[in-house]
Amino acid sequence: MALGFRFQDFVPEESGEKGFDTLFKLFMQLVTITSGDVGEALQWLNELDKQYGLTDNDYGMGDFIEDLKKKGYIDENPQEPGAFNITAKSEQNIRKSALEEIFGKLKKGNSGNHATPHSGQGDEAGTDMRSYEFGDTLEQIQMTESLRNAQLNHGLSGDFMLTEGDLEVRDTEHKTQTSTVLMIDISHSMILYGEDRITPAKKVAMALAELVKQKYPKDFLDVIVFGNDAWEIKVKDLPYLQVGPYHTNTVAGLELAMDLLRKRKTANKQIFMITDGKPTCLKEPTGYYKNSFGLDRKVVNKTLNLAAAARRLKIPITTFMIAQDPYLREFVEEFTEVNQGKAYYSGLKGLGHLVFEDYKKNRRKSL
């Protein structure tokens, strides 16, 4: 029986549901940009509606707001009549949207673990193929690849045969838990010169958090932010994250990250740091030491000392530098060399992909 395609007349979706879905995707983006301010997000959405005609007489913006309430995405603010807050359902949806936008749609895994650099008789198939060796199991033999090799190696002789030399196996990988601290720079420069750098950083953090929850549930992910000081935030607080009038106290961020990782009993530990600038601030007993002009050796030396301390604790630091200034690159290269970690000089567009790939590799080289 031949297989093919069967066509029929296109029947559009119900206008109300279609209208909600279109508006909802935009609303999720806007509420992330406005750091969870529902009122501001709806005002922007109204402006977009005026410009692009997102609604019609059958489904208007008022209908959309009512649907947001009915579906449990927003609720009224008890302290401010007429104002709305996003709900926990919206927070989770924002994380899922960020994951799909940045990493693509990923299927949930069962084991929730990461691959070590060691291959062998592990519990999950790897991606690397190799020739058969004595002791490999039958389950590891890849028949399609092995038969192809036999055809290429012996097919011309007319007598088909499958020999040991034709066999290919797929390596399996041992698994381990990983503890990661994600550091996000919230200094003023993250919105300087009209460029919004904090929103992509938030999206990456939310996507990474959702990735860990879905694919690696046994892993630990802590998120901290750093400006003049550093503090830990919950994953649910990420949509509300804002930049402040802060300098960049990288030392405080690293100290907090290392303290959090010391408490984790996992073998593999790592720090991801998303920043767009140089360290410019230290906290001292008498107050804050600040210098935004160039690279202050006092600040830099303390930062490098912590990079070395993390290396001694076998905690690699991956720096995602959202800047291209030559003197900043020089600092990051020195910082990375001291820690024996890794550095990326990324634009905002490719940031999520880099974070995902590095997390997926589980710092194989450094661990």
UniProtKB/TrEMBL annotation:
**Span list, region Disordered:** 107-129
Q: Which residues form the VWFA domain?
A: 180-278
Q: Which InterPro entries match?
A: VWF_A, vWFA_dom_sf
Q: What is this protein called?
A: VWA domain-containing protein
Organism, by scientific name, is: Hymenobacter defluvii
Composition-biased stretches, type Polar residues, lie in 110-119
What is an example of a Pfam family matching this protein?
VWA_2
CDD domains found in the cross-reference section: vWFA
